[in-house]
Amino acid sequence: MADFDSNPFADPEENPFADSSVQNASGNTANSGLDNYNPFAQKPTTTSTPAAPAAQPAAQPAAVAPPPIAAPIPNQSAVLPNDPPPAYQPSAAQQVDTTELQRRQEELERRAAELQEREQRLRDRAVSGAKDNNWPSLPAACPVKPCFYQDFDLEIPPEFVRIVKIAYYAWIARSALYGLNFLFAIGYICLAPSTVSTSAGSTLGLSILWVLLFVPASFICWYRPVYKAFRSDSSINFFVFFACCAVQILIDIMFILGIGGTGYLGLLTAIPQVNLDHDARNMGGLMFMIVILAGMLLAADLFLLIKIHSLYRGSGASFQQAQSEFTTGVLRNESVRNAGAQMAASAAQGAMAGAASENKY
Looking at the chain, which runs of residues are DSSP E strands? Predict the structure, then answer.
């Protein structure tokens, strides 16, 4: 019971380190030089047999080869030549040709300017509401004034300007053909009077008639329908052109043949002149110019007929549309309406007069 009354936190009465075994252990440790022990000192080698190395795996990755040792740089004066390096010359792949790009840019700018000018002229025309005839181009002092108005860039769509201009130039060439035919008919009579056949007089007279008749008729009945057809997309004008173009193809064949007494100087008139005297041979050579020009016009007429017909069919037009346009145009024409009204009034008056005479008797 005395142990329960003691203080457990009091200093022990006996020193635990006073034990002889503890003192001996501490003494031996001091004598072994623990304070002077160096754990990093080299350990003494042993003569024991080394252990066998562990077995290597069957497959090992290949060792990366060390990078090659760079060779020593030689003396630069011995490697580099004394001459200066050649001048730089760019290759074909490095050369950029901007000529084509500049040409396309200029073409686009030109077309944009033409479209802007055309739009401005259209606006000016819409504001003014009137247009002055400008064809044929005659001097202001001439008493005859222009009869028609034409402007390819203003009235014709851009995609059809080329075909309309071809038709216009073909008409000019046809007019020249009629003029040459008339001049050569005069030469046919004057230069070789001894070899002229009895039909030479009729040839000269008909050549004058063809100039006066067919030159304006071909313009009004052949070229103007083409112009108006593409200007307003008119089916009836297309049909008028097709009919007149067929007639002109027949006339071209007549020019090439040159049948005597028809007013055309062609092969049948030129070939007999070649075997005659000098003047007649010269005249026959000139007649072959008419044959060549007539052949070119025949090819142009065939081209225009086929090309314009394909454009017409591609637009979806038809004969019924031409009929409707003709009916509408006739009904809208003031002269036709006035003539119809006068005819109806005359018929009504005649009927009333007849009825009055019958009632009288």
Answer: none
**Partners of 148 in the β-ladder:** 135
**How far does CA 266 lie from the centroid of its chain?**
42
Closest C-alpha to 239, from 164, 158, 150, 325: 325
Would you call 138 helix, strand, or coil by DSSP?
coil
Give how far Cα 119 sits from Cα of 92, 126, 130, 159, Å. 44, 10, 16, 16
Helix (H) or strand (E) holding 101: helix 99-128
Closest CA to 176 of 211, 219, 135: 211
> Which residue, among 111, 256, 260, has the nearest Cα to 188 in the 3D structure?
260
* Nearest-10 crossing angle of helices 319-332, 334-360: 70
CB 166 within 8 A of CB 300: yes
91-129 pLDDT, tens per residue? 655 555 678 888 888 888 888 888 788 777 777 766 665
Q: 207, 263 in Cβ contact below 8 A?
A: yes
Q: If 0-12 CB within 10 Å is exposed, 13-18 middle and 19+ buried, where does residue 308 land?
A: buried
